[in-house]
ABC transporter substrate-binding protein
Amino acid sequence: MRERRRGLGRGLRVLRGLAAAATALVLAGCGAAVVPDDPDAQPRPGGTLSVGVEASWVSLDPLRATTYVSYSVLLTMYEQLFDLDAEGELIPNLATGYEVSDDGLTYAVSLQEGIEFQDGEEFDADAVVTNVDRMRDPANGCSCLGEMGVLEDVRAVDASTVEFELNRPHAGFPVAVLASAPGMMASPRAIEETGGDLGARPVGTGPFELVSEVADSSVRVKAWDGYRDPERPYLDGVEFRVIADSDSRYSSLASTSIDVADNVAYNWVSDAELDPSIRLDPQGAAGSSFVMFNTAEGRPLSDPDARRAACMAIDPELMDDALYGGDRLTGQESPFPTGSTWDMGEVEGYARHDEEGARRLVEELGGLSFDLQLTSSPDNTRAAQALESQWGAVGIDARLRPTDQPTLVDDAFSHDFDAMLYRWRGAMDPDGNVNRWFNSALATPDAPSSNFNLVADEELDGLMLAAAAEPDPAQRKERYREVSLKLAELTPYCYLWGADWMRMSLVNVHGIPARPDNIMMLRDAYKVEE
């Protein structure tokens, strides 16, 4: 196995830079102005931020929070009980702190007082119970059910204290649940008045409130004047614009048509480094990009040897060199991204690239044919075409099935695919990278669930539960290595690279904090305008 890559291939940028100056001149000729930089800028009120995102949000309801874009949009209007700092450590938000019982089964969470939702409803312990009960009700189909399975009960002790009773110890519960989608608080009044359809009327405690939504196109929010911090938000408003093509996102930023371009393809890095109006803000990789397989009986990839053949045909580093100039974080062999705290390095038994071995398996299987679903962005299309070529070289017939992101996510949850090119934003607690995806209780062919692959293995279940319960970080990592070894045997995924994220903004945009989960938080954002 070649050396694992952990960062940008800067040596290759020298070659790329030969063409970058010409690109900058073309953009300048189109009327792009140089944006003045002020390194000593201080927060100031006013202005609207225009953000170019790669795809549509799934919904404006936290029940459907799954993608990076969804979280970035939702967290302008809603807030979570806890948040994460730049190192991924838990910090108070709507909650002020928690205490956990000696047996690890009860978490007592204290809440801030005097906070209201955007419709005037009071935020208190009863509101938390309403939201959590809604999230954990299987009838509501929350994408978070994998995380909520650990919760036995939730109750209001008094107006500012909530108790969460677990059915098993879970050392990462505050991070995995209370600082994620289940911790997003919506107005109980809005939940009741909308019949539970917050996608049509999102009402939270966040710094911004909804102005308009145009499906698959844009979301506009404005500053809420009743926000709990009278100094924030600084911005008057934010507009999220769907610009599916990464090249178009970059050109929109370079021409100053937008202020922030999220997840720009790495082939634009050298151009951006020569543009004095653009700031690069690489976000690292909390998540992963991978090919996942439906393991259900009757599917083309139900046989583990078929899945191993498909994985062994893929050379992620060759794809990285050809498509991204060697910039991606390759070398991942477990659900825990390269360079992360829980990175497992090489995992014994993982189906690494072996073209001849893949060809032999395909011959033993008597051939292999399947559909690969993907979002229809140019970047994913190029990656899928590279996969199709490598599979074809070993006798695998793969048919590409492009679609839009909301449909792809729906197909994943309903298990309606053979193979799928997918990206998971990653979880800050390691349990969120395995249990929600592979728990046998969620292997429900006739009902949507986050066990997309329909993996059902009792040994794996036991390993995941033991790892989640372990409070000692070093011991916990070793338990997750055991999980990784079992997953290598089952082969539900072929890992391509970490979901490393290149955000770019105009240099007059400030206050967007670095986060290990790549989510864009705009409460503290501001613009310096002449």
